[in-house]
Amino acid sequence: MGIILATVLTGFGLVVYQLERRETFSEIDGALAQRLEEVNKAASPMGGGPGPGPGPGGRGKPKKHRRGGPDPDHAEEGRRLPPRFHEHEHDFEDPRAAPSRGDRPDWPDRRRRTLGPVDESLFEEEDGYYFIFYSARKRDVLGKAGVVPEALPCPTPPEDSLSHFRTYARTHRQAYRFNGIGECALVGKPISEELERLDRFAWMLGGGGAGVLLLGLGSGWWLTSHTIRPIKDISTAAQRISTGDLSERIPLGREGNELNELATVLNETFEKLDHSFAKQKQFTGDASHELRTPLAVMISEAQTALSRDRSKEDYKETIAVCLETAQQMSSLTDSLLDLTRLDSGKNTLHCEPLNLAELGQASCERLRPLVEDRGCTLHVEVSDALVEGDASRLTQVITNLISNAWRYSAPGGTIVLRTGTSQAKAFLEVEDTGEGIAEEDLPHLFERFFRADRARSQPAGRTGLGLAICKAIIESHGGTFAVTSTVGEGSTFRFELALASVAKA
To answer: What domains, with CATH codes, occur in the chain?
Structure first.
């Protein structure tokens, strides 16, 4: 990124510098061209007028004078010849003293030139402008003004007669032009101040570019560090979690940041994983504990029977105890496998339209003898509650709820099963008048192997998995399971499912 930024700034600086340099030299060249035009206007062939002369550079033969008329090179009357301008001392020489054409075979190159009046304000020493006028052949200086550099050479004649520009000795800018007979007019100006100004401008651009580069790199570093830091925190936390520390959490940054939202989602995921692994660990420990007891009973009975010879009745009693214990283990194993299938989602539900009222009545009729043997009364208050569900699984839930109700109800208690609909939901609830459940036990009631009263439930052969299985079955149907209880008054277990019409929609 830094290389790209440096390249962009360098390219931008070069473009700006070149534009400024071009503008500066354009202004200088414009002033030089104006002054060169003034010098060229002031230069004219001897005798006035820009007419062509004979020989090279002329466009035809010299115009013949009439016989008996005055020679144009020696005429003394009819017109006054202008003086010639020598150097800047303004030394004038009368051109009438010049030799005749017959005595000057190099006439075109040594032809006398005159410079008319030139606006000398254009070449004041304070401004630094100067001009010099060279002859055609020997490049003698025919005239000059201003502070001309010493031994200034005449430019090489170009192929055209247009104005040309050059930089001389890196400190002078000059404009020159050759006329039709090879004479050269050159106008120049020192450009040391302009070059110094351009150098300062270049340094200013370089310094500004360096400042922008440093600012960009600093800002980029700050932004990158603040952007990467949360990612690094996430990576570090993930590494610690991968080693088994599920309690690790990602530190959160300021709200509204996308990475902060990601960290929040990951923390929630880690929280669920931690809770899930904690439950799994607890479940494994509880299952091991539940299996240890019946196994210990079976081993003890077998060792006792084998310690010495027993009667037939003693062996039968030992075998009966082992059979009962094995049946408890089988029931526990079935419950564990059932929960495993429900947790993994591999338990396939055979859903069909059914009525909770019919399922409730059938379960009550089947369990009524057990309830009456307990000395309790079972009432059924049902109305239609149509749902889509697995009949066998829902019957398992209803049977478990009624069984828990009569087991934890004192003789003379009442059990009521109700069904109906409420707010587009079908519900079934089982209410008892038992001893109730302590408030501190309610949050743990659906945990696996949890018993609110271990002393009473253990002899009855309960494993503490019944309510956990019931809740898992209802949740697999997309329903909810809840319980309300008051100590000394009784408990009410209730589950709700979507109505059949809503479930189909």
So the answer is: 1-48+81-245 (no CATH), 259-344 (1.10.287.130), 352-504 (3.30.565.10)
